[in-house]
Specification:
This protein is 34% helix and 20% strand. It is α+β, with helices and mostly antiparallel strands and 397 residues long. It has 2 domains: 91 residues, no CATH class; 210 residues, Replication Protein E1, Chain: A, CATH 3.40.1310. A 5-stranded antiparallel β-sheet has the order 9-3-6-5-13, sandwiched between helices. Strands 2-1-14 form a 3-stranded antiparallel β-sheet, with no helix packed on it. A 3-stranded antiparallel β-sheet has the order 4-7-8. Strand 7 and strand 8 form a beta hairpin.
Length: 397
């Protein structure tokens, strides 16, 4: 007998009602919406449709997806559509991967001011890369950056950082030639770290002085300017973590990486190993260990698991994938044409759809599980949570 597949949805369905009641007043509306969406995803509550095989007449029911971007089951098709758009934009050059991470103490401020501070993390990371790259002492070129926000660590704790994918080179400052970086080195991590630290602290202080930051709970005292300055003071002298990984071997490796990272949620269903009254067990990697000791299983109480998962719910309308420099939305197509011209490679058509939650259209049912024949939709039906969106855009992936 096959072991039943475990899902984050099972945790919410089994323990969510009691946990909501216990934590009333501590769970915001956005988090409650995410919980509900995950609980009812691909259930009769959202309605669905009936499919029939044209060859053997086998029938099956497929329920609609919640399409919430925090749902572990709803990101694959969206990721595939986004990746196809990126495939046409890749240049025949090495690509580098740079990770910018906030110190834990500043991550606490970020959690209470998600839109402001996460947005600042994006902007400052991109500005750091483009500023150092434009310096003739380093690369002397205008570069492009694709950034993806992750707010979690392997153990589901709050750990905000951005992954930046950068072509290995850029357009010269006069716009006349392509400037290639070294094949195994992009920019100095130490130089990037110092500029990133300075710019971030300057902008964070500016947000404070403009009255745009909120503080409550354990850091409520930071509303006072003296306390705020004292809190940041140690971080003006410490090294901020910037990690530059080895360059990718080629465009296909870049796409494989993006497929894993762009539409990832805090934890995938595949990492779950048990769900019961004693706790939720999941696999995680302890990067302080080496070899086989790195892979471990952590067990959290159901309530603590849900609390950690919901730490990573983003504000409504917040974009977790962004493009800067040559790849900025306003002129990306034009800049890619110029890049290919300077690299003397054929110009390809590219898609300018950069949304990280684009709907999937033209649904085609998977093949018949009995004979492999073509399945067709013969009926749609609504559920108590149905909306026209779910009926119009069918999805049973």
């Amino acid at each position: 007998m096959c072991k039943p597949k475990l899902e984050v949805a099972d945790v919410f369905r089994r323990f969510g009602t009691h946990w909501r009641a216990q934590n009333e007043g501590h769970v915001n509306l956005a988090q409650r919406r995410v919980m509900t969406a995950i609980e009812i995803c691909r259930t009769a509550a959202l309605g669905g449709h009936v499919e029939r095989c044209q060859s053997c007449a086998h029938q099956r029911i497929a329920y609609n997806s919640c399409r919430n971007r925090h749902c572990p089951k709803c990101q694959w098709r969206t990721a595939q559509k986004w990746l196809e758009a990126r495939r046409a934009e890749l240049l025949p050059v090495p690509y580098f991967h740079v990770v910018f991470t906030l110190p834990a103490a500043i991550g606490t401020i970020a959690y209470q001011n998600k839109a402001k501070v996460y947005g600042l993390l994006f902007t400052v990371a991109a500005e750091t890369l483009t500023t150092i790259a434009a310096d003739p002492k380093h690369l002397g070129a205008k570069i492009g950056v694709t950034s993806v926000l992750h707010t979690w660590g392997q153990n589901l704790d709050h750990h905000p950082h951005v992954h930046c994918i950068v072509p290995g080179g850029g357009i010269s400052l006069d716009g006349d030639r392509w400037v290639a970086s070294r094949s195994n080195f992009f920019l100095s991590v130490r130089v990037l770290s110092r500029l990133f630290r300075r710019l971030f602290l300057e902008r964070l202080t500016a947000l404070f002085e403009a009255g745009e930051l909120e503080f409550f709970g354990d850091i409520e005292s930071l509303r006072n300017k003296t306390a705020f300055d004292a809190y940041l003071s140690p971080h003006r002298r410490t090294d901020w973590v910037i990690y530059a990984k080895q360059p990718f071997a080629g465009p296909e490796q870049v796409l494989a990486y993006l497929a894993r990272y762009t539409h990832r949620v805090a934890i995938s269903n595949a990492r779950l190993v048990k769900i019961d009254e004693q706790g939720v067990g999941f696999r995680w990697k302890d990067y302080r260990e080496n070899g086989r000791q790195k892979s471990k299983v952590m067990t959290l109480s159901p309530g603590e698991f849900m609390r950690r998962f919901l730490l990573h719910v983003l504000p409504d309308g917040f974009h977790r994938i962004r493009h800067y420099g040559l790849l900025a939305n306003g002129h990306r197509a034009k800049m890619l044409v110029l890049c290919r011209k300077l690299l003397d490679v054929p110009v390809e058509s590219s898609c300018d759809d950069t949304r990280d939650s684009a709907p999937v259209e033209n649904y085609e049912p998977p093949p018949c599980p009995c004979c492999g024949g073509q399945m067709i939709v013969i009926e749609t039906f609504e559920g108590p949570y149905s909306r026209p969106y779910h009926i119009r855009r069918l999805d049973s992936s």
